[in-house]
Amino acid sequence: MNEQLLTSLRHALAASPGDSALRLHVAEMLHAAGRNPEALAEVNTVIQKEPSNVAALGMLGKIVSGLSAPAIPVAPVAADPVGVPPAAPEAVAAAPAPDRVPADGGFDWDRASSELGEQLPAPFAVGMDQEESGVAPIEPEAPVITLADVGGLDAVKARLNESFLAPMRHSEIAKAFGKSLRGGLLLYGPPGCGKTFLARAVAGELGARFMSVVMTDVLSSYIGQTEKNLKAVFDSARAETPTVLFLDEVDALGMRRGSLTGSASWLRQMVNQLLLEMDSMAGDNDGLYILAATNHPWDLDEALLRPGRLDRTVLVTPPDAAARTAILHYHLKKRPIAGIDLPALTRRTENLSGADLEHLCVTAAEKAMMESIAANEIVPLNMGHMELALAEVKASTLPWLESARNVVRFSNDHGRYDELASYLRSRKML
Ligand SMILES: Nc1ncnc2c1ncn2[C@@H]1O[C@H](COP(=O)(O)OP(=O)(O)OP(=O)(O)O)[C@@H](O)[C@H]1O
Ligand SMILES: [Mg+2]
User: Fold this and answer.
1) 39, 152, 227, 340: which could form a disulfide with 27 (CB 3.0–4.6 Å)?
2) Where is the AAA+ ATPase domain (predicted)?
3) Ligand 2 centre and the CA of 427: distance in Å?
4) The CATH number of the domain covering residues in 321-392
5) Do the Cβ atoms of 71 and 64 come closer than 8 Å?
């Protein structure tokens, strides 16, 4: 076999890993040279991506029939409707007899896998390895924003300062007054109102690295893997401090353990692992700050909210007037605009979240763009476009505030939601 040719083909494959025809060509070469396990790995890569690639299935049949007798069944599958090239004639010829077609007409992976298991050392299904090796490493970010970048929200900033930032910055004074520095901070509030943005700003204030992990990404269906993933996340956060470890959508993990039964016991183990990691945070302030965010704090496991864990909570309210002005300004400043009345827009967007405001600006920009295309010249984004967008974009914070009102009315026994209660009162919603 021409090794040089194979090497250059492999380089080409590394550059464009999605080129199935090239990959099958490499597989063909390897098969011709008797290097069937390598050929099979290439074919499997194609089949994982395009399960009905006829050429790949034909090649699989050819390789396998060379490995063992009788041949592994390979079902002739209809060509992929999304443009798989027609199979090479020899590949079709290599397809097995129709009596081996599984009942559902698809390729019998289970059977092929068990038969091949005896032939090959490596796992048959390419991709299993990756899945089992856990979450992709989280790249820490250098903090680029501070609270000064957060528009408005003075009450939220004051709460953040008093409950978290000031004690962390002045640890000796805090300790003298008996204030524990252990434990983390839970940000809660309606979706799209700046929880993630504020967490980043807190990291900036502390001059810490920012590592963000979305809890659903840590979840794995493999037994024990989620705990390992969580441990790996905490270990990499501890590796270099100061670091803010931000656990986003923490409710995915911290669901009330009492409501988890039977098959959900793995979830309970995972919650336990999270508690263990938080409890094992050494000393009073080891430079690892845990911040978490949720839209549903009432669904969290009580154990997560105990002293030393996420024991401080801060409500991130919908953007007030100053915040809305800052967000609107941010999203409009890089677009061609004319005659925008920012104070009027601020007044008319009272219940919009930060994400809604962004959507509003994008929608208005689309209108201006379409008008520009029709006129064949740049028509700047104006209040007319904004009006059209205002009619389309719905405020998303009200449904959240309404459900939160019920929580405050019926389950605020510990006074945990006093802050929410006074916000609702200030909005005359309670
Ligand atoms: N006070 C603010 N000043 C400037 N920008 C803000 C402010 N509040 C929110 N934003 C912007 O609004 C958008 C939504 O914020 P973010 O993603 O932090 O919300 P979230 O509460 O984490 O949402 P989710 O619940 O969907 O995770 C972001 O683009 C953010 O930059
Ligand atoms: Mg967020």
Assistant:
1) 39
2) 181-320
3) 24
4) 1.10.8.60
5) yes
With 0-12 / 13-18 / 19 or more C-beta atoms within 10 angstroms meaning exposed / middle / buried, residue 4 is exposed
pLDDT tens digit at each of 430 positions of the chain: 788 888 888 888 888 888 888 899 999 998 888 888 888 888 888 877 777 777 888 887 777 766 543 333 333 333 333 333 333 333 333 334 333 434 444 556 566 555 554 444 333 333 334 444 455 666 777 668 999 999 999 999 998 998 889 988 888 888 888 877 778 899 999 999 999 999 999 999 998 999 999 887 887 767 778 888 888 899 888 888 888 999 998 877 656 555 545 455 666 777 788 888 888 875 555 788 999 999 999 888 888 888 888 888 999 999 999 999 999 999 999 899 999 999 999 999 999 999 999 999 999 999 999 999 999 999 999 999 999 999 999 999 999 999 999 999 988 878 889 999 999 999 999 8
**What is the CA(193)–ligand 1 centre distance, in A?**
5
Q: Where are the alpha helices (DSSP H) in 280-320?
A: none
Ligand 1 atom with least separation from CA of 200: 18
* Separation of CA 86 from chain center: 37
| Topology annotation, domain 3-132 | 1.25.40
Q: Which phi and psi (to 5°) does residue 387 adopt?
A: -60, -45
SS (H, E, C) 45-81: HHHHHCCCCHHHHHHHHHHHHHHCCCCCCCCCCCCCC
Q: How far apart are the CA of 429 and the centre of ligand 2, in A?
A: 25
Within the chain, all domains assigned CATH 1.25.40.10 are found at: 3-132
- CATH 3.40.50.300 is the classification of domain 147-315: yes
